Amino acid sequence: MPNVTSAAGCTTVGSLFRHRAAANRDRIALVDGERQFTYRALDERTDRLGRVLLGRGVRRGDRVALLARNCAEYVEVEVACAKIGAITAALNWRLAGRELAHCINLVEPRVLIHQNEFAGALERLDLVPHDRVVLDEGYEALLAAAAGGAANAGIDPEDGLVILYTSGTTGLPKGAVISHRAMIMRGLCFGAELSVPTGDTFIAWPPMYHMASTDQALSTLMRGGKVVVIDGFQPQALIDAIECDRTGWFILIPGMIDAMIEALRARPVRPAGIGFCGAMADLVPRRQIAEVTALLGAPFLNSFGSTETGLPPATGSLIPIGEAPTRLAKRQSAFCEIRLVDANDEGVPEGMPGELAIRAGTLFSGYWNAPEANARDFRNGWFHMGDVFRRNPDGTLDFVDRVKYLIKSGGENIYPAEIEQVILADPRVADAVVVRKPDATWGEVPVAFVARRDPGLRAEDILERCREKLSGYKRPKEVRFVELAEFPRSTSGKIQRHELEARLLG
After folding, report:
1. Which of 107, 197, 311, 342 has a CA between 20 and 30 Å from the CA of residue 444?
2. Handedness of CA 49, 51, 55, 61 (dihedral sign)
């Protein structure tokens, strides 16, 4: 018999926001500096912006490319597109011209929305035809002239909502398509897995083109909370925000925690309440975890997720306040299935490294216009993350490294992250990364780049620590000291190994 009930089980991000706005009309939804918007105002403004886009020919499934720094309008574009069934392609404004042109042309946008400061850079690019909307003084006039009541174009939960670009550390960025279904599930995990209260405040300071801000900002609005937008890492503005509002998750990313520690020491803070702080503990020196949690009075989130998967597969365990952890074992997330597999997609025994394959409602819908990558990464009914984990006897998971970044030395596989964990546990180290270097005898050998916290730290100290903790073939053959600011980083704070490799070869 026909399934007459199926439509009642379908909903979308735009519809959920609309209904949340009706229930929370006079609550503050969005803050950007001195500007504040209630749910009623944000609902009306995004309806009008939806009408502007429809008038420019945007229809269900069309892409609206967005090139802007963090601002209230960024959130408005994402919500307006959600309402009319368009897909927001969130562009990284830090990209070089070649990479930016690739990201725009890849998705063939119907409309490109950008801040005025990027107009000159865009004019120098060879781009596919598109319409333009500039976020300048004319933006408010566009909204004022538009009729309200944006149309819902029969959107399906599996329709694309946003395209977030991968970091492209081994090539040009890929566009990960996040559906309405996936974003709704990410919002549910945000609340259920992390115990973030309904009505909580989220401080969106990481770039909005990154999942850290877009996922949690949209999740917060679907749950009736407040989004405070800050344009990038501004320690004093962040301290103001955490003193003003309770926030369940205060995001801190690698490479910026030392600067936050300095700011907190210079200006003692009295947070209104922080549930937990941090992210990606594997990439953070242990001393920093202990210090920042003590200063904020909040535990550190031992997370592991991705643009493609959201918070799963292993986000949820917390590192206690003031603790410099010796292990970073992770708890498997709820609402997902995982397998650890070898190169033949066979499950590996407990204690052995294997690539993590996942099934989850939070999972993205594939890379835009990348059939070969999709066929490879979604093989056998599972998404293969490209990350290697080891299952412990107690069921927890240890991150080992990326599949694609192996050091093959004398027939042995070396995972750089294992070496990095040993070095980062030394309180005299500010940060460290291990890369591969060609070697006539062994094929490849590991080399450690280390930023010192203690100027007296010697290469021999690092090598001695590695001799105590690591098998002989895993020990770095060379230690190079660099300044902390010299580490090339992605927008998520990860050190980009390929750029350091180039230094070794140069």
Report:
1. 342
2. positive
224 sits in the region (left: phi over 0; alpha: psi -120 to 50; else beta) called: left
Q: Cis link prior to 268 (omega < 30° from 0)?
A: no
Which residue, among 213, 165, 168, has the nearest Cα to 63 in the 3D structure? 165
> Which letter does DSSP use for residue 349 in this model?
P
Integer Cα distance of 13 and 26 in angstroms: 20
Q: Taking residues 19-36, what's their average pLDDT?
A: 97
pLDDT tens, 41-58? 999 999 999 999 999 999
**Predicted confidence (pLDDT) at residue 102 exceeds the cutoff of 70:** yes
Residue type, 333: S
**Mean pLDDT (whole number) for 480-497:** 86
Calpha distance 343→384 (Å, rounded):
11
CATH architecture of structural domain 10-232: 3-Layer(aba) Sandwich (3.40)
In angstroms, the CA 275 to CA 63 distance is: 36
State the span(s) of the chain assigned CATH 3.30.300.30.
Answer: 407-505
The set of residues, in sequence order, having a beta carbon less than 8 Å from that of 482 and lying 6+ positions away, is 449, 450, 451
pLDDT digits (tens, 9 = 90+) for 456-485: 999 999 999 999 888 888 899 999 999 999
Cα–Cα distance between 277 and 338 in angstroms, integer?
26
Question: In this structure, are residues 420 and 403 in contact, taking their beta carbons and an 8 Å threshold?
Answer: no
Query: d(Cα 35, Cα 56) in Å, to the nearest integer?
Result: 27
Q: What architecture is domain 407-505?
A: 2-Layer Sandwich (3.30)
DSSP 3-state of 384 = strand
Kindly provide the residue ranges of all beta strands, DSSP E only, lying in 278-316, ordered along the sequence: 300-302
Q: Looking at this protein, which amino acid is placed at residue 242?
A: I
Q: Taking Cα atoms as reference points, which of 498, 497, 354, 492 lies closest to residue 433?
A: 497
**Could you tell me the two tokens for 120?**
């000159």
Tell me how far the alpha carbon of residue 294 is from its chain's centroid: 25
Q: Is 278 left (phi over 0), alpha (psi -120 to 50) or beta?
A: left
Which residues of the chain form CATH 3.40.50.12780?
10-232
The enclosing H or E element of 122 equals helix 119-123
Q: How far apart are CA 20 and CA 30, in angstroms?
A: 14
Mapped onto helix, strand or coil, the DSSP state of residue 445 is: strand
